[in-house]
Write a structure and sequence with these properties.
It is built from 10 helices and 7 strands. It is of the alpha+beta class. A 4-stranded antiparallel beta sheet has the order 2-3-1-4, sandwiched between helices. It starts with a helix and ends in an 11-residue tail after the last helix.
Length: 279
């Protein structure tokens, strides 16, 4: 887009669309909003687990839900209906003009657009209220299309799963069956890259997902290999590693970080990972 078109769209989003559409959001809708984000979402889930423990101990169940191809399968009609409910006629026409000008067909969006990010947190707002107010799930949190329900009754969560699936159909969405299901609380919860485990004493242990650790080790090995060939600077590789450590440190990762520091130092030694074959 031309620069002036970007300025217009940003103004439309920040001054009208976002304030209007977010006005009716529940607190536990955590993505893409001022004062919210992944860090607050993680702390909120920890808070829910602690509250649940005080009333029910560790005897509980978790319904973890994920929507199949959320943005690629998002209905243009559903997005437009969502916007039309909260903004006036002139603003709605401007928003529709922008959407139709950037996206063809009737299904699918690129999540890079700010307007589409707003749509992503907005079209499931009715579902949030349904879960909180009609299903009466106290311990519920959503981050974009990834949401979690915690309850003491497994059978009730099964009923909730069926009713949520029905409501998703009205929004032209469906569950990702591979990532949606009910587990026991003792099995832990995978959310936003961390695995949450509630101990018998009520402590919440938050550890980094093992897949993330494996990915980081391979990434570091390749970056060090490139640095040894002169294609990267050591300062840049160090910066990448510090960024990952800052992320990992959000959980209970003291021993993990010590092992990773040792592994990272070993990569810089002569003969260790220099050929890149072990990455």
């Amino acid at each position: 887009m031309h620069f002036r078109d970007r300025v217009f769209q940003r103004s439309l989003n920040d001054n009208i669309l976002y304030p209007k559409i977010s006005r009716s959001f529940i607190y536990d809708n955590m993505a893409c909003q001022k004062g919210k984000g992944p860090d607050l979402a993680r702390e909120r889930l920890k808070c829910f687990l602690q509250r649940f423990y005080r009333k029910h101990g560790t005897q509980g169940y978790v319904l973890k839900c994920d929507i199949k191809g959320y943005y690629p399968n998002m209905s243009h009609k559903v997005v437009k209906d969502c916007f039309h409910k909260v903004i006036d006629g002139w603003t709605y026409k401007q928003a529709v003009c922008i959407l139709d000008g950037q996206y063809d067909h009737e299904i699918g969006f690129n999540p890079g657009s700010q307007m589409i990010q707003i749509a992503g947190i907005g079209i499931l707002n009715a579902l949030d209220h349904f879960i909180k107010e009609e299903l009466h799930i106290k311990h519920y949190i959503r981050y974009m299309d990834d949401f979690i329900l915690i309850h003491e009754d497994k059978q009730y969560l099964l009923e909730c799963q069926v009713r949520i699936a029905q409501m998703l159909q009205s929004l032209e969405c469906q569950f990702n069956t591979k990532k949606t299901g009910i587990t026991t609380l003792s099995d832990g919860i995978l959310f936003l890259g961390f695995h949450y485990r509630l101990t018998r004493t009520g402590k919440v242990i938050m550890t980094l997902n093992s897949g993330n650790i494996k990915h980081e080790r391979k990434k570091l090995c390749k970056l060090v290999h490139l640095a040894k060939k002169g294609l990267r600077t050591k300062e840049k590789v160090d910066e990448c590693y510090r960024d990952w450590k800052n992320h990992a440190a959000k959980g209970n990762s003291k021993q993990l970080l010590q092992r990773m520091d040792e592994y990272y130092r070993s990569l810089w030694k002569d003969g260790d990972g220099s050929d890149g074959k072990d990455c």
